[in-house]
Amino acid sequence: MSPRKLDPETRAALVDIAARRLAEHGVEALSTRKITAEAGTSTMAVYTHFGSMSGLVREMVHEGFARLERQFAKVRRTDDPVADMAVLGYAYRRNAKANSHLYAVMFGGQSLAGFSLTDEDRQYGRYTLLTVVDCATRCIEAGRFRRDDPILIAHEMWIATHGLVNLELGGYLIDPVNADRCYDTILESLLVGVGDEPRSVSASMATSKKRRRREVEADPEQAEAVASRR
Amino acid sequence: MSPRKLDPETRAALVDIAARRLAEHGVEALSTRKITAEAGTSTMAVYTHFGSMSGLVREMVHEGFARLERQFAKVRRTDDPVADMAVLGYAYRRNAKANSHLYAVMFGGQSLAGFSLTDEDRQYGRYTLLTVVDCATRCIEAGRFRRDDPILIAHEMWIATHGLVNLELGGYLIDPVNADRCYDTILESLLVGVGDEPRSVSASMATSKKRRRREVEADPEQAEAVASRR
DNA sequence: ATTGTTTCTGTGACATTGTTATGCCATGGG
DNA sequence: CCCATGGCATAACAATGTCACAGAAACAAT
What we know:
The structure is a homodimer.
Chain A (H helix, E strand, L loop, with lengths): L7 H18 L6 H8 L4 H7 L2 H21 L7 H18 L1 H7 L12 H10 L1 H12 L8 H20 L9 H15 L4 H20 L2 H7 L4
Helix pairs in contact in A: 1-2, 1-4, 3-4, 4-5, 4-6, 4-7, 5-6, 5-8, 5-9, 5-11, 8-9, 9-10, 10-11
The first copy, chain A, binds a DNA duplex through helix 3.
């Protein structure tokens, strides 16, 4: 009748510390002892709050999905939906690079500390991409894309962007065929392939590049991702 | 002046056992003790033959590259180079799914047992894709693709196929937007995007589907990948 | 055939990992 | 004020990669 409540502060601190360690020093910096030592608690804190190391990783993954969604929310919906799509892709790519290790777990199929995604987690991840589906719908209604299932078109964009990001993080896209060039090229090809005019594509791509700085690069979350909470 | 030679048989046995364990039971089945116990030696065998666990993984990765290259070599070079390209993509995808854990290390940026690719390893991986570059060149010379850098076009194909495979292995491509549908869709979009006529694309895709069975699915290597060596 | 040198290989140990059984004690309702 | 509930620290367990240390086996020279 009189339990001792879990301290939400230490819970948040553990997630923050783990995320920062993962981002800064990679997977080998993730161990119960290292994390809890930095938090000033014992290893048991991980188990009372998350059940296991996997539970902590799951928490970070959900945080990662939420962050991606907030990134997407900052991209405006203009009367040039194709440019919107390009900006969304850039936001996706930038977010992935800012949290590369977490991204590998979220979308790259990488298991971390024995954790791998459940169907529920993947549902969460797919939900994030509804923004892209919506954007594809607007592209179709604007007459830029051929009339087709917007979900399918959104998947095309997702697959291409994910493939690029993943190979980029793997160190496979190097000069002179670097990631930036590949990204522009495949995006243009794909946009033409789904029905847009080559000339319109070029114009929208140019517009998107101007919008990047304001809508995704000037992002306080990038700092938050690295900095400690307090 | 009288050293004792390394036994190449145990070396090969270790690689085979490790590859089979990885394919059948995943990453947690890879430990020096488990592998060497199955090989009937002590854990030291790993260190004398490969220096460390990472060395053994590197060996498996190189074996994986070689296998992919042999897969590619079985795809014919016909007078419909676009169909050739589609068959190559299918071979790539099939190989990745038959050795999913190894593929994740080869191209997915996944580190395994502390191993991660060196620049030299990646060079090896990129070399494998020269087959795709050659095919892109033939597509251009046949007037099917616009005149552009064939290396860049090959990268577009690679990125799309890799993105699809990686999301598929991650369990993200589910009905009704499943991997097969996504693969056909993005490949068609991309082929149109790099300059081919939509009608020609459809024809070549149909041709490639007929060729799949003979040129990539009837492959004794798929069995070899799982079965033990003897 | 014997010897000697070289190097593989088995044994055992060390540090580190995730996880948990076992208590202590802080907390908050009665 | 009391006391039970459950978070937390301590310490242990099994399993991991790795290596120091012999011992033995293999090869070259005599």
